[in-house]
Specification:
Blueprint: H1 2-39, H2 44-62, H3 67-90, H4 98-133, H5 137-143, H6 163-171
């Protein structure tokens, strides 16, 4: 049982690392799309929420906030990105502009990777939680340091979209280094072990990207 717990915890650590990598990748890719959107004279009411959401996501990560708080800000960033990318797809003036279509396409791919990473993380977290809550194995697991861990669930976040953020969107040149994105958690898939994660809710990400 202890070996199983350690194996699950190892999977959890690895999957959390993968999720962090993909979330950071999205933050790193967003400034290029924002700059291209500015150059294409996209509306500031679309750019301002994106600038604010990205800044909030970066700030929460740098402050070491909880996974749940990070999930909420990442969700808000995804929503703002989706809004801009929808505008990019529908605007005939940029439909064939590779300078803006390329970063938009790269971010779509990253969104898909985030959904996959979140699913793997939630699978691993669910396995640990089931083991820690089980009887009698959970008693031993807790004695050796096992504890429940949070899923990567999105929470509602109030975005700062006041005059200062709007001004930042207008003046933005370089922004400092946000599927699903959404109010729900991804559905854990069965694990390759005798402990399986139960079905959950789907990763609430807009289907256009995720």
């Amino acid at each position: 049982m202890i070996r199983r717990l350690r194996r699950f915890e190892g999977n959890l650590t690895a999957s959390r690392g993968l999720l962090d990598v993909e979330l950071k990748r999205r933050c790193d890719q967003a400034p290029e799309l924002i700059a291209a959107a500015r150059a294409a004279a996209m509306p500031s009411e679309i750019l301002a929420p994106l600038v604010g959401a990205r800044s909030l996501a970066v700030a929460l990560r740098e402050q070491g906030m909880s996974l749940g708080e990070q999930a909420g800000s990442e969700n808000a960033l995804s929503v703002a990105l989706h809004r801009l990318m929808f505008e990019v797809e529908c605007n005939p003036n940029v439909k064939h502009d590779w300078a803006i279509q390329r970063p938009a396409l790269e971010l779509k791919v990253t969104e898909q990777r985030i959904i996959g990473a979140a699913r793997v993380y939630n699978d691993s977290a669910t396995a640990v939680n089931r083991l820690v809550r089980s009887v009698p194995a959970g008693v031993v697991a807790r004695l050796v340091g096992g504890q429940q861990v949070p899923l990567f669930e999105a929470t509602v976040v109030e975005l700062p979209i006041g005059p200062d953020v709007a001004a930042e969107a207008h003046a933005l040149h370089d922004v400092a280094p946000l599927a699903p994105l959404h109010d729900e958690v991804v559905s854990p898939a069965p694990l390759h072990d005798d402990t399986v994660a139960p079905s959950g809710r789907d990763a609430g990400v807009p289907g256009a990207l995720l």
